[in-house]
Amino acid sequence: MHKPIQYSRVPFPQFTDRHVISQTDNMTQLERVKVEIAVELGKTQFVLEDLLKLKSPAADVDLNDPEMSTEERSQYVVKLDTQIGEPVDVLINDRVFAQGEVVSTSAGQPYGVRIISILNEEQQITAQAERK
Q1: Cβ distance 64 to 76 under 8 Å?
Q2: CATH number for the domain including 106?
Q3: Which SS3 state, helix, strand or coil, does residue 115 take?
Q4: pLDDT bucket at 119, cuts 50 / 70 / 90
Q5: CB distance 78 to 54 below 8 Å
Q6: What is the pLDDT of residues 75-96, one digit of tens each?
Q7: Which SS3 state, helix, strand or coil, does residue 131 take?
Q8: Which of 67, 123, 62, 66 is nearest to 96 (CA)?
Q9: 89 within domain boundaries
């Protein structure tokens, strides 16, 4: 036979001296949270054999040379599924958040992304599912 379990109340102190944080204080705290932002330019799939054939071009190789064959160019360039000018995915903490457009910031400087649309929750779910 099992002994009956005895229960008793535990007295807890009342927290009457709590500092009430306003909504403004909460937003100020949230604004300082750091997040990782990434931009996905595109995707592709490779057979490992082709991936191992990739090489860095020598200084005298001109990838814009119109006489260079597609096969020769494929030794140096990874083709993505996104066309130039198509919107790119902007990810926050590895989740699709927005769509953007790749832009030049200034000559010789890193490029950037101009946000063209922030996705609603349904669009984010759909975009995330498409990434899998």
Answers
A1: no
A2: 2.30.330.10
A3: strand
A4: very high
A5: yes
A6: 888 888 888 889 999 999 889 9
A7: helix
A8: 123
A9: yes
